[in-house]
Specification:
The structure holds two protein chains of two kinds.
Chain A (H helix, E strand, L loop, with lengths): L2 H25 L8 H5 L19
Chain B lengths: L2 E7 L1 H27 L3 H4 L7 H33 L6 H21 L15 H23 L8 H20 L2 E5 L2 E4 L3 H36 L6 H15 L14 H13 L1 H13 L5 H6 L1 H23 L2 H7 L3 H30 L7 H34 L11 H39 L5 E7 L13 H6 L2 H28 L12 H12 L14 H7 L37 H9 L1 H4 L10 H4 L7 H10 L8 H22 L9 H11 L8
Antiparallel strand pairs in B: 1-4, 2-3
Helix pairs in contact in B: 1-3, 1-4, 1-14, 1-16, 3-4, 3-7, 3-14, 4-5, 5-6, 6-7, 6-8, 7-8, 7-12, 7-14, 8-10, 10-12, 12-14, 12-15, 14-15, 14-16, 15-16, 19-26, 21-26, 24-25
The chains are: A mainly alpha, B mainly alpha.
């Protein structure tokens, strides 16, 4: 069963990586706005034909 | 703020989209074929290349990696660019990614029917293809991360997080599970043995479901569902919680595939606890998806794309409810090895992945071709065919599985098993037929979709490079401009130490673990001995033919199983099994003790049974393996195989490799002499002899005192 050491080590590494990513995302303000992103993603496509600047909200 | 102009790459998206639909139809056709093989075994099994055991891995690999795989890349390449307001980092990398992935699929489609397989489920491809997968996957990841770095949108939308998790975890899973020792270009042995191999495999297997079939598709759901409904996701906050909770829980759930097996109990318990907890983020995600349509259900009535997505998310909810339930020991005791699991994965595959893929295709293709969908009516017909197809597939399978499990477990009043295994097989046949009907419905829907999509493509023109504009990313955000990132760490000795330790640990694990593993393969049961060269060759034929797709080698500690198959399986019995052959499905009976106790049959029985199974067991759905009688055993590989096993820690005597073939011939001649007594003439150098030797060996070790 020694392979479980490997699996736990690898899993902890992956989870640790995600933890770092999570802490980074919180610290760098990724999670500060939990509403605008859901709206913003709806507005980014149809700028092709008309000369209309993208509806890019500042956050 | 300066507004920059740039172009989105739609060509790669288009390529992946076409690959998705074509491979989807191919993969489903193979699925239908193998489903029908269980109904008409003698007609549809075309040995050796198109026997069930070789085609089933082709089906699973095709739908997972070709259909869903291309679907992932289609959706990621479309949404990533738009979410990050930038073109993909490098067109050449995108192109290599696309063609590399298709080549891998073609390689799989050729090698699997040829019997070139590692026999580890959803990781059957042999080592050269494993390396190719690694390279292409890294190219995909590099291209994605480089795109993320040059983004024009600071915030990473939740879908992007799902894509990142997918890339990272699949890379790790693939590397760890594909640790194998090549003995030739097309054959390798898993580095792990027996119970260890099983644990690694199902840690991989479950996470392949989690991080290949689930997380990337959740990313797609969070992008394409709001887009299709033109309203924001119900709760962005919930989506963030969904993501982080899901990825932290998923990776520990693997052992639920090995409940009641020879895996230590504590490992099983960890798997159960995490599997059960998974219901919370999963249902959070499902509710979030469905509630995105709050107040817009009138749209669902009219918009066929939303219909597809609603069924997809509902199927996600059903599978992720079922998953934790199936992980409970009492339910697993009934469901494991039955067709319940097949029904469960098809709710996920046909429902969640399939319906979402088609919804995305119908939404995306008209957009990048600047046209309308060719026919809404056809899409509606597809929707109903697919939805009914799922029901016609799943309901007979659930019903069948309950019956199957009860028949396996039923005793008469005098305490005898009530049913022969074969009776449960023949009982299943009508259900297999009904299930195939579900497959026909679903597949015809997919073909209609293919026509519809190609017609749409025909009436539009591809906007290969779509113009877009976005303000550049402000640089002000980075705190230490002009400083290298590692300055931060250099000023902090403690975190630096910890990080270095982690790096060293990775190296250490890679180096130490293999030797460590070899040592732990010392048997705990003294009477368990390595396979003889003939048995080893026979075992490799067993692996090649994919016998594990229908036969388990794992007797669980229930009276219904020990009565039928003999003493329950012990971890120590599998220490020389590279790879393990526990299987996950009992379309046929368990073979763990095929050569021992009450189950022991004569060599002649095995010979005749392999030649024509239904002649010996009336109603058997097993394909004929008569070609093994003609095929000559490749004994040139014997010394290589023995040496490889020695490297992996199997205690053959030094120099045994040189005399292995002599040993093999002696045993083979004994076996053919025995066959001759029953009037069967066969050369000792034929493959069937090796396979019979292996089957006769199964389970005999622990009955030796």
């Amino acid at each position: 069963m020694s392979v479980i050491v490997l699996l736990i080590a690898v899993s902890v590494l992956v989870a640790g990586g995600f933890l770092v990513a999570f802490l980074w995302s919180v610290k760098s303000g990724q999670m500060d706005d939990d509403y605008t992103p859901s709206i913003r993603m709806l507005f980014d496509d149809e700028i092709k034909d008309v000369k209309k600047s993208p509806t890019k909200n500042n956050n | 703020m300066q507004v920059e102009s740039f172009q989105y790459d739609n060509k790669t998206v288009r390529n992946f989209a076409i690959a998705t639909i074509i491979w989807g139809v191919v993969g489903m056709t193979v699925g239908l074929w193998i489903a029908l093989q269980l109904v008409f075994p003698t007609v549809l099994n075309l040995q050796p290349y198109f026997n069930f055991g070789r085609l089933r891995p082709l089906h699973t690999n095709a739908v997972i990696f070709a259909f869903v795989g291309n679907g992932i890349f289609m959706g990621v390449y479309y949404s990533l660019q738009r979410l990050l307001k930038t073109r993909m980092f490098n067109d050449t990398l995108s192109k290599i990614h696309f063609w590399g992935w298709q080549l891998i699929i073609v390689a799989a489609a050729i090698t699997l029917p040829l019997g070139i397989t590692t026999s580890k489920e959803y990781a059957e491809l042999e080592w050269p293809i494993d390396i190719a997968i690694t390279i292409i996957w890294v190219i995909f990841g590099f291209n994605m991360f480089a795109t993320i770095i040059k983004r024009r949108e600071r915030h990473l939308y939740v879908a992007v997080w799902f894509y990142i998790a997918t890339f990272v975890t699949v890379a790790v899973l693939h590397l760890v599970n594909s640790f194998e020792l090549p003995i030739s270009l097309f054959k390798s042995y898993s580095w792990y043995a027996g119970v260890q191999d099983a644990l690694v495999q199902w840690w991989y297997g479950h996470n392949a479901v989690a991080f290949f079939l689930t997380t990337p598709y959740l990313g797609l759901m969070y992008y394409f569902m709001p887009k299709a409904a033109n309203r924001p996701v119900f709760s962005y906050k919930l989506s963030i919680i969904h993501f982080w909770a899901l990825i932290f829980l998923y990776i520990w759930a693997g052992p639920h595939h090995l409940l009641y097996t020879a895996l230590p109990n504590w490992a099983q318990s960890i798997g159960i606890v995490f599997s059960f907890m998974l219901i919370f983020p999963s249902w959070g995600g499902m509710i979030n998806g469905l509630l995105t349509l709050r107040g817009a259900w009138d749209k669902v009535r009219e918009d066929v794309i939303l219909k597809f997505m609603v069924v997809a998310v509902t199927a996600y909810g059903m599978s992720t409810f079922e998953g934790p339930m199936l992980s409970l020991k009492s339910i697993n005791a009934v469901a494991h090895f039955t067709d319940w699991i097949i029904a469960h994965v098809h709710i996920g595959g046909l429902g969640w992945n399939g319906m979402l893929t088609f919804g995305i295709l119908y939404w995306l293709i008209p957009r990048i071709y600047k046209t309308e969908l060719y026919s809404k009516k056809l899409a509606n017909i597809h929707f109903w065919l697919a939805t009914l197809g799922i029901l016609f597939y799943a309901i007979p399978m659930y019903w069948a599985a309950f019956q199957q499990a009860s028949m396996w477990k039923q005793f008469t009043e005098s305490g005898q098993l009530k049913y022969q295994f074969l009776e449960t097989v023949t009982y299943m046949r009508p259900f297999y037929a009904m299930r195939s009907l579900g497959g026909v419905l679903y597949l015809s829907g997919a073909i209609i979709a293919m026509v519809n999509i190609f017609k749409t493509i025909g009436q539009g023109t591809l906007v290969a490079n779509e113009d877009a504009q976005a303000p550049a990313l402000e640089k002000a955000y980075t705190k230490h401009t002009g400083e290298h990132w590692h300055r931060w760490i250099e000023r902090r000795p403690t975190p630096f130490l910890i990080l270095s330790l982690v790096v060293i640990l990775i190296g250490g694990i890679v180096e130490i673990v293999p030797t460590f593993l070899v040592k732990s393969n010392i048997p705990t049961i003294a009477s368990v001995k390595p396979y003889t060269p003939l048995e080893l060759q026979g075992r490799d034929i067993y692996v090649r033919e994919g016998c594990y797709t229908c036969h388990s080698q794992m007797i669980r500690p229930f009276r219904s199983e020990t009565e039928r198959y003999g003493e329950y399986s012990k971890a120590g019995e599998f220490v020389y099994d590279h790879p393990f052959q526990w299987g996950s499905k009992r379309t046929g009976p368990d073979l763990a003790r095929e050569g021992a106790g009450n189950l022991k049959k004569s060599n002649a029985w095995h010979f005749n049974h392999m030649d024509e199974p239904s002649a010996i067991s009336t109603g058997s759905v097993m394909p004929s393996y008569s070609f093994l009688i003609d095929h000559e055993l490749d004994t040139a590989t014997t010394p290589l195989k023995i040496n490889a096993m020695i490297t992996l820690g199997v205690p053959y005597d030094k120099g045994f490799a040189q005399i292995a073939n002599q040993d093999l011939m002696v045993q083979a001649k004994l076996l053919t002499a025995d066959l001759k007594k029953d009037g069967i003439e066969v050369g000792p150098n034929k493959e069937i002899v090796a396979l019979i030797a292996y089957l006769q060996r199964l389970g005999t070790d622990i009955s030796k005192k």
